[in-house]
Amino acid sequence: MLLKFRFFLLLSLLSFGVYAQQTPERIQIQFEDLTIPEVLQKFKQQSSYQLYFLPQWFGDETISGNFEDITPEAFLSEVLKETPITFYRYNEQIFVLNRNNQIYDALPNGFFGRSQDSLPGAGQPVTERSGRAPVPVFVNQEELASKPAQVETVRIGKQDASTQGSTFVLSGYVRERESGRPIADLVILDRTNGAGSATDENGYYELRLPAGLNVLEARSVGKESTVKQVIIYNNGTFDWFIEEGVEQLEEVIVQAEQERNVQAVIAGTEIINAEESKDIPLVLGERNLFDVAASLPGISRAGEGAVGLNVRGGRTDQNMFLLNEAVVYNPTHFFGIFQALNPFVTQQVEIYKGVIPVEFGGRLSSVFDISTKDGSTDKIKGEGSIGPITANLALELPVRKGKSSLVVGGRGAYSDWVLRALDDEQLANSTASFYDVVATYTDRLNENNRLKATGYYSNDRFSLTADSTFTYSNRAASVVWDHKFSERNNATFSLANSRYAFDIGYDANSNTNFNLGYSVEETELKGFNRFRINESHRLTFGLAGKFYRVSPGTLNPAGSNSDVVPQELAREQGIEGGVFISDDWDVTDRLSINAGVRLSVFAATGPSEQKVYAPGQPRNEGTVIDTLNYGSGETIKTYGGPEVRFSTRYLITPEFSVKAGFSNMYQYIHTLSNTTTVSPIDTWKLSDLNIRPQTSQQVTLGFFRNLEEGALELSVEGFYKWAQDVLDFKTGAQILLNDAIETEVIQGDGKAYGVEFLLKKTQGRLNGWLGYTYSRSLIRYDSQFPEERINDGEFFPSNYDRPHDVSLIANYKFTKRYSASMNFSYQTGRPITYPIGQFNFNNSDYVFYSDRNAFRIPDYIRLDLGINIEGNHKKNKLAHSFWTISVYNVLGRNNPYSLFFVSENGEVKALQSSIFAIPVPSITYNFKF
Fold first, then answer.
1. pLDDT, mean of residues 351-378
2. b/e string for 30-48 if b means 16 or more Cβ within 10 A?
3. What residue spans in the chain does CATH classification 2.40.170.20 cover?
4. Which segments constitute the TonB-dependent receptor-like beta-barrel domain (predicted)?
5. Where in the chain do CATH 2.60.130.10 domains reside?
6. 134-181: per-residue pLDDT in tens?
7. What's the pLDDT at 880?
8. Where would a tag sit more exposed on the chain, N or C end, judged by fewer CB atoms within 10 A?
């Protein structure tokens, strides 16, 4: 009926003939807090003009205005500029309003393939004859009406004098309908012409569409497929709100990963969804995202049960773990066996191991960007598990329906029974426990503002001997505010605080009882913008500031009978800052570049006491020539420089791309450890007058290919990395409670290189991935002083050098409820220093050792198997259940964790330490409601 009304009205008006040009009338009108229909009605009453429109075209928004000596055309343009309504002046007294499209009194020039220049004003709306005319947009009404009634029709933009061309850009954000959180890696397909786009981490998308009717479909992992009919008249925006879905999970994740694998500009990036760890058999049935990460090429552990990860030949302290922008210094429990993050609260981990985006700084090797879930804003939901060692529970609690929610997760361990069950008298009285809690509040304040606040705490306490108790904890808190300034400009502001601490309590019922403590704390304020200049250029720019405070150690007597003398090392303080900018530039349809620079700076600040050593002499107590005292806030030493981040991607075909990158990094904080793997008593040290920051440069080149319509993903990537001023300890160094730590450490050069291969299958009953890495990690400590030189100043393998690393993850789904999984790992044995001879001196036997890391422990081989049993899929049930039955180390291989040497009866013996030397079965019950 509406179309018939418009058509009849237009024919009636055209029957009066075209009006004659006269001097335009000037009008005067004033109004306040009126709706647009009310403003148009007032315009009609105060003038001699007639307006034809439908009031339902407008909303309830009100406007105000004061216009003097203005033409009717200028007045209508101003009133309607924020609406999709256009207008057409038929004659001196009549204006016809239309939605989105212009009304034409002639077809465009050359519409039928011949010139119409002889027609006055041909092809232009009467109101726009002074400029170029937009091309009319025609919509097939029969095709529009043939779509299902539930498919919404959306009209975007309106035609005006600036509308040129036959294609336009549609952009916007995609969010969950319940929680309002952005959906990343969602694919929007244009069914009309086959084009497509994927959302970024903020849910933002851009898509170029031909003018007129387009049928768009939005797909995302775990979301319902949503279809819209979009009639586009000009560049415009449209935000999608997507419902949760279940049935399309496997199909959608393939499409999303396919787009990202080949088309992403930055190489060396991996994303692990929390669900990916569900079907992988891991130790004691506990989900662990870091174990999943270690199965990917370029990422490994120094040993079984090790806390740290080594990324592309880097040290464990060269990785940054972020939980909603807050740093977590030790993200594991019980020496790395369990992750310290509740898996049911974690949404995903995004790993940058190649070129790290400019908004991140402070580490050389990688960033693990961990994000928590946004809770349901509609109803209470929960998820948990009960296993042989731990129990987990996570709840999603609506706070304001449709706006805000709270996610709370808690986990605890009850592992003492395992230690008591072991056939080892020394462990019979041992205890080991841990817990972690996390809470995330998310509030979608309005269309332009979103707030996310997170609090996290973890604690480990264990005693493996009768006289010592070890305790360590992590604390992290952050507030992240996402603000939308405009359709092209979005910003994120964050404030985060983190603290890591450990305590060693010694109680042997003697006069030597003590408590030893250590802590490191940091606070960071960061803000950055994402600004879309046009469809080819997207800028990211901002700044960040971080304040460090380190308590290197305190020693206090435990009990009134202790003779231990209290000791406290002076605190360290430092300020780190960064200013950054990058441009994501689509040079052509095939070539894209992401280029940026980060200006990094660090200042060690007082109060502090710094020793000055004689130049040209080794650092020791005898070479101290001066002691400098710095007051509170006084700058001790400043370091820094520019960090270049460059990545490029070229699409050879839509399914095959080549990527290259270069980056250089600064790191101002170091770990001090004289163990092979990261332990709870590792300490962190800031750069100062005597310890320089670590620096690195890395180049990468990779090829990425999708096969079998995206069912198979194949990638080969090579890297070469240089590092300077890498910190290590001298032989026999004393790390704890040393106020001259610079005399116990040395700094040298490192290099790492390798090739990473990944074959991933994402469709079908059988899926998983095969990863292989060949890499070397070498280090050199050279000096003119023998005590600061290792292996004659030549390059030698680092403690985490493992040339060959193979991982095979496979899952086979028998039915919708039953599946089996396998995890196979092989690694070259890590380097070790062996005794190679012995001698007798003064009737005592001594041994002398090989060059550092000249030998290797046996290769590491492990096979894990698991069976997954899901509960029935009835819709109306209290909770959905999921059982995991797994066996860790099925082969029972006695993989060495470390080797050490003892002297017994004049004979040197080698002893091997292992974590899990036998098959370890487990059964875990998971539930979700």
1. 92
2. ebeeeebbebbeebeeebe
3. 269-928
4. 429-889
5. 141-246
6. 556 655 555 555 555 567 888 887 766 555 556 788 888 888 876 677
7. 79
8. N
Report the run of H or E that residue 536 belongs to, with start and end.
Answer: none
Tell how far CA 625 is from the center of its chain: 48
Q: What is the mean pLDDT of residues 184-201?
A: 79
One-letter amino acid of 708: E
CA angle 454, 553, 479 (to 5 degrees): 10
| Strand partners of residue 483 | 449, 491
- Of the pLDDT bands very low, low, confident and very high (cuts 50, 70, 90), residue 108 is low
Q: Alpha-carbon distance 763 to 619, whole Å?
A: 60
pLDDT at 137: 62
pLDDT exceeds 60 at position 252:
no
| pLDDT digits 0-9 by tens, 726-784 | 988 887 777 778 888 888 889 999 999 999 999 998 888 888 899 999 999 999 999 88
Determine the Cα–Cα distance for residues 395 and 790; give it in Å rounded to an integer. Answer: 53
CATH code linked to domain 269-928: 2.40.170.20
Buried-state track 159-172, b at ≥16 Cβ within 10 A, e below 16: bbeebeeeebbbbb
Q: Which amino acid is at 577?
A: G
Q: What percent of the chain has pLDDT over 70?
A: 81
What span, in angstroms and rounded, lies between the C-alpha atoms of 334 and 436? 12
CA angle (725 as vertex; 722, 730 as ends), nearest 5: 125
Q: What is the mean pLDDT of residues 452-457?
A: 96
User: What is residue 115's three-state secondary structure?
Assistant: coil
> How far, CA to CA in Å, does 312 sit from each of 297, 300, 364, 801, 826?
9, 8, 10, 10, 17
CATH fold of 2-101, please? Phage tail protein beta-alpha-beta fold (3.55.50)
Rounded to the nearest 10 degrees, how much is the dihedral formed by the CA atoms of 736, 738, 741, 744? -70
Q: Which two tokens stand for residue 569?
A: 């090392």
Q: How many CA atoms lie within 13 A of 744 on its CB side?
A: 14
Report pTM: 0.74
Residue 63 structure tokens: 């406007």
- Which range among 92-106, 204-218, 810-824 shows the weakest confidence by mean pLDDT? 92-106
> φ and ψ at 253, to 5 degrees?
-65, -30
Over 60: is that where the pLDDT of 922 sits? yes
User: Cα angle vertex 33, ends 29, 39, to 5°?
Assistant: 45
| HSE value, Cβ hemisphere, 13 Å, CA-based, for 227 | 9
Single-letter residue type at 439? A
Angle at 504 between CA 499 and CA 507, to 5 degrees: 155
Cis check: omega of the bond before 134, within 30 degrees of 0? no
Query: Shortest CA distance to 328 belongs to which of 216, 474, 173, 191?
Result: 474
Is the model's pLDDT at 819 over the cut of 50?
Answer: yes
Which is nearest to 754 in space by CA: 796, 714, 701?
701
Residue count of the chain: 929
Average pLDDT over residues 892-921: 73
Pick the CATH number of 141-246 from 3.40.309.10, 1.10.10.10, 2.60.130.10, 3.40.50.720: 2.60.130.10
- Name the DSSP class of 425: G
Distances (CA, A) of 401 to 375, 479, 928: 11, 21, 21
pLDDT at position 610, please? 93
* Pairwise CA distance, residues 192 & 50, whole Å: 40
Structural contact between residues 158 and 233, judged by C-beta atoms closer than 8 angstroms? yes
- What's the gap between Cα 164 and its chain centre? 39
8 A C-beta contact, residue 560 and residue 547: no
* Separation of alpha carbons 708 and 694, rounded Å: 44
Q: What digits encode the pLDDT tens for the residues 552-596? A: 989 888 887 888 888 888 999 999 999 999 999 999 989 999 999
Tell me, what DSSP letter sits at residue 73? H
The structure tokens 């400019």 sit at 358
Cα–Cα distance measured from residue 473 to residue 466, given in angstroms and rounded to the nearest whole number: 22
